[in-house]
Amino acid sequence: MGISRRALFGLATGAIASAVTLRLTGNAVASPALVGLKQLNVRTLSFDCTNAGEQLRNATYWVEGNYVPEVLADINHALRDWRANEIHPIERSLLDLLFQLGKSLDTDCRFELTCGYRSPHTNAMLHALDPEVARNSLHMKGQAADITLPGRPLRKLHDAALAMQLGGVGYYPDDNFIHVDVGRVRRWQG
After folding, report:
1. If you average pLDDT over residues 160-169, what whole number do you get?
2. Which one of 33, 34, 111, 161 has the fewest beta carbons within 10 angstroms of its own beta carbon?
3. CA distance 148 to 48
4. What's the CA gap between 178 and 161, in Å, rounded?
5. What is the mean pLDDT of residues 79-98?
6. How many C-beta atoms lie closer than 10 Å to residue 29's C-beta?
7. What percent of the chain stands above pLDDT 90?
8. Burial bucket for residue 31 (CB in 10 Å: 0-12, 13-18, 19+)
């Protein structure tokens, strides 16, 4: 019976999480707030890609200080330009920003994605329809995402992203998403 590297990786990740959980639950002074990034030493994201009608669940993209190339490829595919079916590498720092944002709101980091990567052609088309779409959008570099977080009010998600001070944050309440990117720190409302 063969087992794929991905399945083996999933088993290893589960074993690490189980071992850490057992260690923490055996420690009478362990606080639930301490169970997080440093204790588990893994980072996992999930995406409901609303426009593409696809889902990516439990993508553990970082383990023990290392990014996982196969999972990053899955994330690149999930966050692709769905209009052009074009894939581009998503900046790792954007994934880390999303993970930190989800954890700051005490969630399992399952985001609804409106837009991840956007090809130059798609961006030009959107800019022609709406001049407020940036000509040089960071979406074209895989450095931005338009998201919501189920179970959390949009305003709370927006406020948490602003508090992180890790890049640009746009608030689009009429379209029900926020924009986050890893460019310079700035804010706006659409």
Report:
1. 98
2. 33
3. 10
4. 9
5. 98
6. 6
7. 78
8. exposed
Structure tokens at 125: 């088309």
| Partners of residue 55 on adjacent β-strands | 48
CB 115 within 8 A of CB 90: no
* pLDDT tens track for 115-129: 999 999 999 999 999
Contacts of 85 (CB under 8 A, 6+ apart): none
Q: Kindly give the residue spans of alpha helices, DSSP state H, lying in 26-169.
A: 37-40, 69-78, 92-104, 120-129, 154-164
First to last CA, the chain: 54
CA distances from 127 to 75, 131, 180 (A): 25, 5, 18
Alpha-carbon distance of 29 to 68, in angstroms, equals 32
The pTM of this model reads 0.79
Degrees to nearest 5, angle at CA 56 with 63 and 168:
75
Helix (H) or strand (E) holding 12: helix 5-25
Mean pLDDT of 132-148: 97
Confidence class for position 3, pLDDT limits 50, 70, 90 = very low
Alpha carbon distance 147, 124 (integer Å)? 21
| Nearest-angstrom CA–CA distance, 36 and 106 | 10
Handedness of CA 98, 138, 114, 160 (dihedral sign): positive
